[in-house]
Design a protein that fits this description.
Number of strands: 17
Radius of gyration: 22 Å
Oligomer: single chain
Number of helices: 6
Shape: elongated
Structural class: alpha/beta
Length: 269
């Protein structure tokens, strides 16, 4: 089924009507019986009384922008609530968004006069170089655009993604994994995340190579994808999870030991 959730904060007044503030609205992509729930939510999103909506979260329900509205995977259209403060677009992991799609989303969220933040999760994003007017509007309104998955914020002058140190710190408190079945694009983004953390001396709690390790060459790990991975100098723990039963030679083990010693924070291999 399609599931949704609306969270309302209700304030009671002894001498007046009940006041409803800051609803959070979630539209989630789960399975089959979807139209009725989507319609219920898209109907409730319309701010008949200009009630501030703290967050509209599309959890893998976003399909595309069409004629200024979001088209959900169910086929239901969603207009931008004019009183939403934050919009989260979480796509299928590794979905590559085009610049046109991102610009259309930026135009969509600008319809809210209360907007403070737009957040992307799960997708892979390009730089925004062809929409100076849209970026200028975001900058004028001090709207923050975050690429949460890999620790970036959008520079509203250049349209480039810049490292958001606080977000990178948050990501690196958990395991950072490179999986064998990740696309090359996802692996590149993860490698760049590790490099960004190292450059800012942000501790990386654990780097996990999930069956993605192929070999060591000149103190770099070569992944099965052919991509090179240098040892993050701020990683605290490295886990190399190979194919079941793989026999490592002494030379390989020594090379791995030399690889991890490049981190000045290493505690465990």
């Amino acid at each position: 089924m399609w599931f949704g959730k609306i969270k309302l904060q209700i304030q009671y007044h002894t001498s007046g009507p009940i006041e409803i503030t800051s609803p959070e609205i979630f539209i989630m992509h789960c399975a089959t019986d979807r139209n009725c729930v989507d319609k219920a939510h898209t109907g409730r999103v319309k701010p008949l009384y200009e009630i501030p909506i703290s967050c509209l979260d599309m959890d893998e329900s976003f399909s595309k922008i069409d004629a200024g509205s979001i088209l959900l995977h169910s086929g239901i259209r969603l207009s931008c609530p004019v009183s939403v403060k934050k919009v989260v677009i979480k796509t299928e992991e590794g979905r590559e968004m085009t610049e046109t799609e991102v610009v259309d989303i930026l135009m969509f969220v600008q319809q809210s006069h209360l907007l403070e933040e737009l957040e992307f999760v799960g997708c892979l994003l390009p730089s925004i170089s062809s929409s100076e007017a849209i970026l200028a509007e975001l900058q004028t309104r001090d709207i923050e655009v975050l690429w949460r998955s890999y620790g970036y914020s959008l520079n509203l002058q250049s349209g480039a993604w810049e490292v958001d140190v606080d977000t990178v710190k948050c990501i690196c408190t958990e395991n950072v994994c490179i999986y064998s079945n990740d696309s090359d694009s996802i692996q590149r983004c993860t490698i760049q995340l590790l490099e960004n953390a190292s450059e800012h001396d942000i501790p990386i709690s654990c780097l996990c190579l999930k069956k993605s390790f192929s070999m060591i060459n000149a103190c770099d790990v070569i992944l099965h994808s052919g991509l090179y991975l240098s040892c993050p100098v701020s990683v605290k723990k490295v886990v190399i999870d190979t194919e079941e039963g793989r026999e490592m030679t002494e030379t390989e083990v020594v090379d791995i030991l030399m690889f991890v010693q490049q981190s000045h924070m290493l505690e465990e291999l």
